[in-house]
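Ticket #4471: structure output looks truncated?

Reporter: J.K.
Steps to reproduce: submitted the chain below (400 residues) through the standard prediction queue, then opened the result file.
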Amino acid sequence: MTLHLPEIPRGFLKRTQKNQAPKSFLALDIGTASVKAALFSFLDNGHVTLLGFGRAHAEDSAQIADAGLSAYNSIKSTAENPYPVKNIIFGLSAKECYLTTTSVKISRKNPQSPITQKEIAQMTEKIQNTSYIESAQALADKIGSDDVQTKLLNSDYIYTKVDGVEVANLDGYKGETVEASLFSAFTTTEKIAELSKIASDLNLKTAAITSNIYTIVKAIKRKAGLSGNRVIIDIGGGATDVAVIFGGGIAACLSISLGASDIVDVIAKDLKVGIPDAQKLLDMYVGKNLDAESVAKVGGLIAKVAQMWSAGIEHLFKEFEGIKVFPGEIILAGWGSAISEYKNSLTGEWSKDIPFKSPPVFGNFGADYLDFIKSDKKDILDKEGATLSLSLAAFELWHH
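Returned output as attached by the reporter:
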């Protein structure tokens, strides 16, 4: 295997340009079965306004670019935006990334001297170089290639300690030992090239590429602070990502190739309708707009898929390494979080063999975590919170 270690980015967010903050920007959530687009503008108080939202189905990866164009065009035809859109932020599911957490313990030569920014930067670079090697090997296994080039998307400290005492910022502290745990997200240079092509087709500049889980956790951390120990289950179209959060940071993240699009496929096959009609039936079911007979048919199919999904989630929890006890609070996010059968399938006996700190309690990632977004469309905030959280990348990118 050939490993390529590019220069470590200076920031924690993978940026492709350093321009003045724009008036508006587009966020494009690249899923495994669909593409979602959200158009935002900055407000004077540092918050953002949601100007429009669109979604397009993609049968496979070859249709992602067309789906992105379709989702964006659906917004442009309805949204009122007085500002020209020039920048795009991409969000990737955990399936398209490699997420890793690396912990280190370092003995300092001069414990009486204050920790400097230079010392912190050197430690970060050392951890990230280790993570680069690990990510290249993991992504090579995932895509079946011996020659993989990886790029860092996001990096964020889960915790930092000096002589065993946790501190919010190492800068200026004195001590003999420093402990740190750093979360990092990587993807391949090939994936970045694909996204750059989509941006070019949309006549936009790529401002940032991030992982969805990263911005979801950022939103939760804004609300809960460092005490936010939780499990996040992000139910996308073709995959579900499960992230374990300690101290407001991602300790571990795994994925399964099951999601809400499996329900759409089953509805289409069983009721002998096309994918678009099956999607409409699911949306109408979630919105409680179906007649009683259709509710019984569609609900029965959803329940079967949800049981299969919950079995996959139970198995996934047992695959986590290094997690002795899971937080009892579980936040459901993503497209599938609006489908009650998913949450219902996780109640009862499924968790008895999983070491939770307390019996699982469920919540949804929605409007309550997105108070920095101004919108009168609470239904979109509740259903599409995972996509809308990508706007936090703009805050970090342009320092609003």
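Triage note (M.O.): checked the attachment and the full token line is present. The CA atoms of residues 24 and 61 lie 28 Å apart.
Status: closed, working as intended.
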